[in-house]
UniProtKB/TrEMBL annotation:
Pfam families the UniProt entry points to: Neur_chan_LBD
Domain Neurotransmitter-gated ion-channel ligand-binding positions: 1-103
InterPro entries (UniProt xref): Neur_chan_lig-bd (IPR006202), Neur_chan_lig-bd_sf (IPR036734)
Protein species of origin: Dreissena polymorpha
Name under which the protein is recorded: Neurotransmitter-gated ion-channel ligand-binding domain-containing protein
GO CC aspect terms: membrane
Any one GO MF annotation of this record: extracellular ligand-gated monoatomic ion channel activity
Amino acid sequence: MERYRKNLHPNFESQETFNVTINCRLETLIQLDQVEERLSSVMSFTINWRDTRLDWTNDILCLVNQNVSAPLPRQAFFMELDKELIWKPSITIANPHSPRYMLSDNIG
């Protein structure tokens, strides 16, 4: 992670498409007002992307191929990282009925 820069988009110097998948789930429908055309709800979002700069699979396989007799380290394929250390997509959720209800995790 010594060369990893969390402030740069994973495809910063690439022309390749970068996919971010957002899944939205309605948890609770609180209120539905058809006259006012308003909906109150609780929703959850799951965001998935692949930052190839954090993929060490090739490095691990090279080490294993150099020493075939060594057992494959299982824990090396799955690693937990502090979320503050990695790039995350910027997300803004706005309410067109009330500008004071805008959520954003856009940093910088």
